[in-house]
Design brief:
The chain is built from 16 helices and 17 strands. The chain is α/β, with parallel strands linked by helices. It folds into 2 domains: about 250 residues, Aldolase class I (TIM Barrel); about 70 residues, Arc Repressor Mutant, subunit A (Orthogonal Bundle). A 9-stranded mixed sheet has the order 9-10-8-7-6-5-4-1-11, sandwiched between helices. A 3-stranded antiparallel sheet has the order 12-13-14, with no helix packed on it.
Length: about 375
């Protein structure tokens, strides 16, 4: 079915499942710290997990590493240095590999930024969400606006010349003016990358069971449109639905996801996608979610909670779901290389999307139009199997 002639790029995702407090909007695999952080044991488990996975990726280079959570910056620089040393001993990194650490603006973590930089981590992603104290309290965040500002300043002072700020809009009770002010503050802190996205209510969250009053669709759309103009005027190019970057500062790790690249996942609840050239297959697998279960099973086959082999329809849908989030879309060559499928498998649907005005197809380049970006779910829906 699949006919791969080359493997896509490979990234590594590492999940850290603990946080100080579970935010009411968060649907990630995160668990509040109830006792002493099992720091050394968790690093041992991650290394053991990786060693079990190595046969799946023999001979392949890792182009990016992303440490997400939860709150990975709760771990000490000493522990992260031990982890990175273990990775370097077992994996081949591409030149100038991007190594990202997610961090929250707590003052304890800011003090560690210089130490994190010294380990070889070269990119931070700081979860600011807002600079307004009232908004932060409604979001259940443990920092205030001044902490957020100090975190960005600390990133600069620590030597990080590449860092992202996460910022939300359409927050409970938020006005257009306060959204504008949040973005103005973020831009003034000179991050190289901004993730600017609308708060959405996800299942299995506190906000889902006790929904707050959010701005209506028209106000949320106005916030998004004004934000796009504001960011463009400050020199940030929108390259994905919610991602804006200065020149050459796109997040390589996330772009790999959006281009249907491969990624290995280690850690509690981590997911992965691996292409096998010999088997001509694409496999998704995921690890057990609860930290205690993961710690006890990381060195065994029981660490894997599930596995799924993608079929042709799966690969097409997943590719389009991600690639059509990108402003520049994708090339026909990239589709064929990363799905292992001929372009003819999607030609008719691409032409239908083009006829609706949702896609622009010029030579080898296929990209969503402005209307296609706005109607992303409808556009992707065309690729659902009949």
């Amino acid at each position: 079915m699949f006919q791969f002639t080359r493997l896509p790029p490979l990234a590594l995702y590492i999940h850290f499942p603990w946080c100080v407090r579970k935010c009411p909007y968060c649907d990630f695999n995160s668990h509040e710290i109830r006792a002493e952080l099992a720091e050394a044991a968790y690093i041992d488990a991650l290394i053991a997990d990786l060693e079990q996975e190595l046969p799946r990726i023999w001979g392949r280079s890792v182009s990016s590493i992303f440490m997400g959570g939860g709150t990975p910056s709760l771990f000490s620089a000493t522990s992260l240095d031990r982890l990175l040393s273990a990775l370097r001993a077992r994996l081949v990194f591409t030149p100038n590999v991007e190594i990202t650490l997610e961090a929250n603006p707590g003052t304890v973590e800011q003090d560690r930024f210089s130490e994190f930089h010294a380990t070889g981590i070269n990119r931070l992603s700081i979860g600011v969400q807002s600079f307004q104290n009232q908004q932060l309290q409604l979001l259940g965040r443990i920092h205030d606006g001044e902490d957020a500002i100090r975190a960005a300043e600390a990133a600069h002072a620590a030597g990080f010349d590449n860092f992202n700020l996460d910022l939300m809009f359409a927050l409970p009770g938020q006005t257009l003016q306060s959204a504008r002010q949040d973005l103005h503050t973020a831009i003034s802190l000179a991050p190289t990358h901004l993730s600017y996205y609308q708060l959405t209510i996800e299942p299995n969250t506190l906000f889902h069971s006790h929904p707050p009053e959010l701005p209506d669709e028209d106000l949320a759309w106005a916030m998004q449109c004004e934000g796009q103009v504001q960011l463009a005027g400050a020199g940030y190019t929108q390259y994905e639905v919610s991602a804006y970057a200065q020149k050459t500062r796109e997040c390589r790790h996330n772009r790999n996801y959006w281009q249907f690249g491969d990624y290995l996942g280690i850690g509690a609840g981590a997911h992965d996608k691996i292409t096998d050239m010999a088997q001509q297959s694409i496999t998704r697998s995921w690890k057990v979610k609860h930290p205690d279960s993961y710690l006890s099973k990381a060195a065994t086959a029981q660490r894997i909670a599930g596995t799924r082999h993608l079929q042709q329809d799966d690969a097409i849908l997943e590719f389009m779901l991600n690639a059509l989030r990108l402003t520049d879309g994708f090339t026909t060559k990239l589709f064929q290389q990363h799905t292992g499928l001929p372009l003819s498998s999607v030609t008719a649907t691409l032409q239908e999307a083009e006829s609706k005005g949702w896609l622009s197809w010029q030579d080898d380049s296929i990209r969503p139009t402005e209307e296609g970006q706005r109607l992303h779910n409808d556009l992707v829906g065309l690729f659902l199997p009949v």
